[in-house]
What does this fold into?
Amino acid sequence: MPKCDNCGRRWPWRDAFLKSWFLIGGKRCRFCGVKQYVTPSSRRRMSFLSVAPAVAVLLWGTAAEVDILDHLYMAAAIVVIVIALLPFAMELTSEEQPLW
It folds into this structure.
């Protein structure tokens, strides 16, 4: 779970999950009140983690000739798992930084 750059306390999963959906702009730490931003490296990592499993499932499904319904179930399960794990890949900073 991400830690506040100012006070060092870990954010609850719920706060980190909500922040993972809105990577632009800051969110105030519930413990110290300082606005926190997602680091650029963390944004890139989270983007990769959200796209890579979907691409892997698509490639595997076409190569293995999996039934389309099984393919969709597997893709949906992976999407749910990835979305639930995204907050664990997040890092925070007290300063807003450009992506590149």
Summary: The CA atoms of residues 61 and 68 lie 8 Å apart. The helical segments are 13-21, 40-64, 68-85. The beta strands are 27-28, 35-38, 92-93.
